[in-house]
Design a protein that fits this description.
alpha/beta, about 45% helix
């Protein structure tokens, strides 16, 4: 592990890691994620795998807490042909459906992070012939998985009554933009399962027999595309610890960013 003494770049990483830990204790999960992801990027650039492994723990926890805050709202928003405006974002689970695509989901997640709004964002592509929903997450790489759609249809939008009595709103769900009529509404639990399916698909693409440094690069790419998966963080931390025990020097790697641009 590179010494921080007299090394400004390493000292900066250590300072960011300390700030991230304080932010986590203070329940500033967005601040912890921002600091942790930045420290992870910097440590990766220095091939400092020990510091990468250490910063991944608070980073994973901050993202888990954000996901729990979104889940606990029990709010599901089905998004059709137009993303909600930044000011209208609320905490909850967002299903992005066609004709919107993976980059729209990424943009929505980044907007929610900038606004410090906890959100689980899942993007689905057109239903397959087998009746499955292809899910997609985009970043430096594209991740895809197929899952079963939820069975429940979207409740119809209530008609405005002729009298002044207030019309009831659909419980726990809403539409943004022009969601297709009858679009099934997933439960919050479905969103967690969809997140796991995407992350598991990403992990399946990484050769477990490859050298730790090769796995680190592959996992960094996939974590950048799908930051909302605990096992990706854990697999990356394991690979970092393995790289410390079995260093492989002289490799030239492309630059990979672990955090979303803000």
């Amino acid at each position: 592990m590179p010494s921080s003494r007299g090394n400004p770049r390493v000292e900066r990483i250590d300072a960011m890691m300390e700030e991230a830990s304080r932010a986590l204790v203070a329940r500033d999960y967005f601040g912890c994620e921002r600091l942790g992801a930045n420290a992870l990027d910097r440590a990766f650039g220095l091939l400092d795998y020990d510091r990468m492994a250490r910063v991944l723990l608070p980073l994973e926890e901050a993202r888990r807490q954000k996901r729990d805050l979104a889940f606990d709202t029990r709010r599901v928003i089905v998004v059709g042909d137009q993303l909600p405006s930044t000011r209208s974002l609320v905490a909850g689970c967002y299903l992005i459906c066609p004709p919107l695509v993976g980059v729209d989901g990424r943009n929505l997640r980044e907007s929610a992070d900038r606004r410090r709004v906890p959100a689980i964002v899942i993007v689905r592509e057109p239903t397959t012939r087998e009746g499955l929903w292809p899910l997609v997450a985009v970043g430096p790489v594209t991740i895809r998985a197929k899952v079963a759609p939820p069975a429940a249809p979207l409740p119809p939008r209530p008609r405005a009554p002729r009298r002044r009595a207030k019309a009831p709103s659909p419980p726990e769900s809403r539409r943004a933009g022009s969601a297709p009529p009858g679009e099934p509404v997933p439960s919050p639990e479905w969103f967690l399962a969809a997140n796991e399916a995407l992350g598991d698909a990403a992990l399946a693409e990484v050769n477990p027999a490859a050298h730790p440094e090769t796995r680190i690069e592959a996992l960094m790419l996939r974590l950048a595309a799908h930051p909302d998966h605990e096992k990706l963080h854990q697999a990356l931390a394991d690979a970092c610890r393995a790289a410390v025990r079995d260093p492989f020097t002289g490799r030239r790697r492309r630059v990979v960013k672990a955090r979303q641009p803000t």
